[in-house]
What does this fold into?
Amino acid sequence: MPRAPDQESRAKGERPPSAETFENQILSLVPSLRRYSRSLARSDSDGEDLLQDCVEKVLVRRDQWRGVNLRAWVFTIMTNLYRDRHRRVSQHPSVELNETLGLTAEDVSGDPLEKTRLQQALNALSPDHRSVLMLVVVEGYGYQDVANMLAIPIGTVMSRLSRARRQMAMQLAQNNIVSLRRPK
Amino acid sequence: MTDGHNTVTETDLHAFVDGFLDDGRRQEVELWLKDHPEEADEILQWQAQAAELRTAFSNYARPSENDGMLLNAASPARTSSILWRKSALIAASLMLFLSGAAAGVYGERLISKPVPIENTAALESLPGQSKTAFLVYASEKRHPVEVGADQEEHLVTWLGKRLDYKLVAPDLKGLGFSLVGGRLLPVNGKAGAMLMYQDTAGQRLTVLLGKNPENGETSFRFESAGALETFYWIDGAIGYAVTGEVSRAKLQEIAEECYRQFET
It folds into this structure.
């Protein structure tokens, strides 16, 4: 149903601020969104893809933003997108080929096999556990914030966090490393 | 988790790790942990894990010059990157199919290993490639190697030239293995080398060397597949993998000896 012009302009004036402001705000969120998307993804390219999908969706849905805490709103959209993608990928496992690549951050100072090990431990987590772990540990959100963002009880946040931490600890502890003596 | 009047919950422990406790409560938890070594151990693991995760991803929190284009939903960069990724996917499927065909005979779980399309993935497939090389060549009766140990000098010069690296064939006689010879073979999609050794009982092992796309240095790692053990590591420009049907302890000795003798 077409809306009268006066309604439309009022709606625009009230909720989403001017287009430029909204887009600039999104732009300033991109670095932390990039970190979050990469922490959920299986590879750099997969992370950039998720980031792009997320920004697209945010722009499409800008009218649904209620004008408070843009960052949390965008992070919620990212989390949901990630879960949907993960579901699609598990249904069509051939796509996963594209996503088995390890961490390839520019920093090459670290041990590359160590990065692969971390990535594998993360990939073994379910999307629900992984997103809670990343929101708390990497993004620094409080438990109640995460509960609000994901629309789940705080008890569920805590149990997912416990589960994620214990599973990661178990995976990372699997002792397949022998420390190297340097007799040269 | 009740100690008299002082109760520490699981939520407290998480909040302790995540820095959400006020000073007073934090000190109480610290005291409590002194009497609960098992939980204290777990907290140390969680803290290390959190630090590792933050380090791994902090580098990504940076702007990129193309960020403006993200806001333009149908930007050409997006379209081309999707196309590029699609073709990479097809290439990856093809590579998986080919390596699957090569490895299929042996029924190893090689197919499930990631396919080398990007650097780190290539690193990871080093033990997989080493196992395949072992399975293919170590069982070969007449032509296990291209150049035999009788021409060792020629062997190391030739393979060293192809790898652009001062190759030596490690002397493993002290561990009961003598050089059979070596061959040129593709590793990580480039010229690589395989050296083969055997003991007096005819038990063989292989040493695989491949160009490492990232200059790095790693610890020793091992992978088991049935009776096959593989030790692998990266040292500078070269990745190494030693595979054999020997005990892990023995193979580790051999790998360490190789590591000692290889030039970096």
